[in-house]
Amino acid sequence: MKVLKYVLLAVGGVVVLVAAAIAVVFATFDPNKYKSELSRVVKEKTGRTLAIEGKIGLSFFPSIGVAVGKTSLSERNSDKTFARIDVAKVSLALLPLLSKQVVVDRVTLSGLNVDLAQDKSGKTNFSDLAGAGGPSASAKAPEPKSAPQRGAVQLDIAGVEVRASSATWRDEATGNR
Fold first, then answer.
1. Measured between alpha carbons, how far is 39 from 49 in angstroms, rounded to an integer?
2. Pairing mode, if any, of strands 101-110 and 160-163?
């Protein structure tokens, strides 16, 4: 009986410590402070301008999540808007994270508007985002043969919800929309 009592006290103590740590992070961490840094990284890596006008919010229960308000992404090396969204929410299941699995409970996109286009040469305005890349894609350095993979993360998406959204397609070769 005494062993069970001590185990229950230890488990209760761990739960209280985890709850306190989450409360401290929630009370002190402001993701909105990192908007400009995030925009800078996106510009540097993609040549696109990310503008986050809305607030970024975090949630910790019943799942870890992030919600982003009004946000837009420009065309590559242009001021023209490629996509904009009113609200995007992503939530992760907690328990799979302990076994290095990322399980996305739900992705909710509301007010998403995307302007897809293909130029006269057949290149799309999203090919760089889809991994096709620009001029540097064909000049990739070979991967090292002895580089070990550490901590591979598994990704699983349980559900996607898209509301009040639209996509347009423009083919500049034919003029079709």
1. 7
2. parallel
Which candidate, 46, 47, 49, places its Cα nearest to that of 36? 49
3-class state of residue 56 by DSSP = strand
pLDDT surpassing 70 at residue 147: no
**pLDDT of the residue at 170:** 94
Whether 103 has a pLDDT exceeding 60, the answer reads yes
Query: For residue 6, how many other CB atoms are within 10 A of its CB?
Result: 10
Burial label for 82, CB within 10 Å (0-12, 13-18, 19+), is: buried
* Residue 97, CA distances (Å) to 68, 137, 153 in order: 22, 32, 9
Residue 24 backbone dihedrals phi, psi, to 5 degrees: -65, -45
* Residue in this structure with the two tokens 């995030």, named with its chain if needed: 38
Q: What ranges do the domains of the chain cover? A: 32-129+153-171
Beta bridge partners of 66: 58, 90
